[in-house]
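Input record (one chain):
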Amino acid sequence: MAEPQQAPSTDPHSLAVLRARFGDDHRWWVLWTVMIGNMASVMAATTINVAVPAISQAFGLGQQQAQWLATAFMGPMTLSMLATPWLLERFGYRSAYLWLLALLGLGGVAGGLSNSIGLVLAMRMVEGLAAGVLQTIPAVIILRAFERHEQGRAMGYFGFGTVLAPAIGPSVGGLLVQWFGWRAIFFFVLPFCILSALMARRCLPHAAPGACR
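The corresponding structure, as predicted from the sequence alone:
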């Protein structure tokens, strides 16, 4: 006796519906989306360096205290990378990614509005927690969404964005500090977070965007 056919998914963000909407290019849209989020996280990590003198002057920090601006970011970032598989499995790719972007943007905005060095460091930790996972997700996407013969090409595109971010970030960050002050460094990541979130809402599925085999 023939088994009843399963009804097609009506969830607009299911993998099947998104593949039908975007066609064979869907995996590339997913890659561009997570690449922009990764660029935002890399810029959050690197652009702070050009603002250290201004922040030190604003809060009267010594050299050792100023080093915490980088340490407060890198430590949580390293730890949060370990949680990436659990987060993706527990909350799904779409929800986890959007919440991480929101966390990175929130850390940037709150850090830029902070009036105490303690709050600045706390927001750097928040940014670091989000950045660790955002920098890990693209590698997972490439392994699961692309066939083996396409992974080299996908990794090349992703690598271009990864190299571009620290190349332009400090230069633009230096101009922002000169024109608007050190607070502008924290707001710098916000446009990238918003753009990546808009793209994620449109093309990122709930489940893993595995390749069609």
